[in-house]
Every structure is written in structure tokens, then in C-alpha cells.
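re: ur question from yesterday

yeah so i grabbed the chain u mentioned. its 148 aa long if i counted rite. heres the sequnce exactly as i have it in my notes:
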Amino acid sequence: HRMRLSSPPPTGQNSGKTPAARGLVEGFIRRGHHTGFMKPVGQRTVIEDGVPADEGAVLMRAAFDLPEPYPAMSPIHIPRGFTKAYIAGEVVEDLGARGVEAHASFPDHDVLLVEGTGHAGVGGVVGLANARAASLLRVPVAIVSFHS
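ran it thru and got these C-alpha cells back, copy pasting raw so excuse formatting
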């Protein structure tokens, strides 16, 4: 039985998505599941091994020695100024297709944890808010909310 789970679409920025996702990935791996991680839309991009990747993907890859390349784990980046360039027509690539292609590179995993980004509206202008990204990838969604 294979599971694709989008978790957690955030209720706000800095709400604990990556720590929650890390705990879930660790639990799946400890139970012997071939587990992967993907953050289809990232806004905290760093350059790792000469390739852009979201900080969350870099953390997960290092923490669990995941073998997938960063373009599969973190295919779409929304750095500062990207939305303006998109609106101006300077971005012509089908970003959703890039995410779907990256998602397809995890065919043999028992579990693929797909983490949302930022807050619910991040990516909305480019058509890739968390709900839309989950829909394109056809993954179920779990919302995790932390309250103090």
C-alpha cells in the first residue's frame, strides 16, 4: 500500500511545518517504509551543491540521507521578485508541469511526504498555492495547526 500525503499546509508562516514533516518522515522510516520528501513550491531558496533548493528539502535530505536530487525534492522556487517577474510575463514556463514531473520521479516509494510552503496564499499569484499544488499532484492533505 503506497501513501502520498501532503502535510502540513500551513496556517501561517513559521508555524512548524518542517519540524512536523521531519517527525513524520522519521516515523515512516523507522517503520521500514521507503520514504521520500518533496516540497514542490519553496520560498526559502538556497544553493546547495550548485543547485537551487528549498531549505526544508536540504534539511530533510541531510537528516535522513535521502538520495533524490534537489530538482525532484524542490522543483519550484518563489524567491523575492519572482511574483513581479511572473506578472510582467517574464516567466513563461509551466511551473505546475515542473512540479508534476518532479512528483512522478518518486514511483517506488511507500510514502512520499509533500510539504506545503509559507502560508496558504504563497504561490497563489502563480497558480500554485498549497491547495492547488496538492490538487495538481493528486495528494491528500493533512492540516496541522499548532497553538500556544
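noticed a couple things. The radius of gyration is 14 Å. also The beta strands are 3-6, 35-38, 41-42, 45-48, 51-54, 76-77, 111-114.
anyway ttyl
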